[in-house]
């Protein structure tokens, strides 16, 4: 699991579209601060497809950074 507090843009030479997987999100509050957690799950080909594969938590700073990025998208 990782908590994201800031996001920096990075140019990539080669990009590709990844395989679709299931994902869930959870919004919670601790000590008056709001957090967003996104969990992705293994693809059907994995040994344990229903198991959480990755978790990203966005605290207040990360949520603000994500909002700024999303507001710039067409």
Helix content: 10-25%
Counting helices, strands and paired strands, the structural category is alpha+beta
How many domain regions?
A: 1
**What kind of oligomer do you see?**
single chain
Global Rg: 15 Å
Strand content bin: 35-45%
What is the typical, i.e. mean, pLDDT? 92
Biggest sheet, strands in spatial order?
1-4-3-2
How many beta strands in the DSSP annotation?
4
Number of helical regions: 1
Largest sheet: 4 strands, mixed
Protein name: Methionyl-tRNA formyltransferase
What does this structure look like?
It comes from Thioclava arctica. There is one protein chain. Helix content is 18%, strand content 36%. The protein is an alpha+beta fold and 74 residues long. The chain has one domain. It has a four-stranded mixed beta sheet with strand order 1-4-3-2. The longest helix is centred in the last third of the chain and has 13 residues, at 60-72. It starts with a strand and ends with a helix.
Which key phrases capture this entry?
74 residues; alpha+beta; 4-stranded mixed β-sheet; flat
Helices and strands in order:
Blueprint: E1 2-4, E2 23-30, E3 33-41, E4 52-58, H1 60-72
Parallel strand pairs: 1-4
Antiparallel strand pairs: 2-3, 3-4
Q: What's the gist of this structure?
A:
The chain has one helix at residues 60-72, and strands at 2-4, 23-30, 33-41, 52-58.
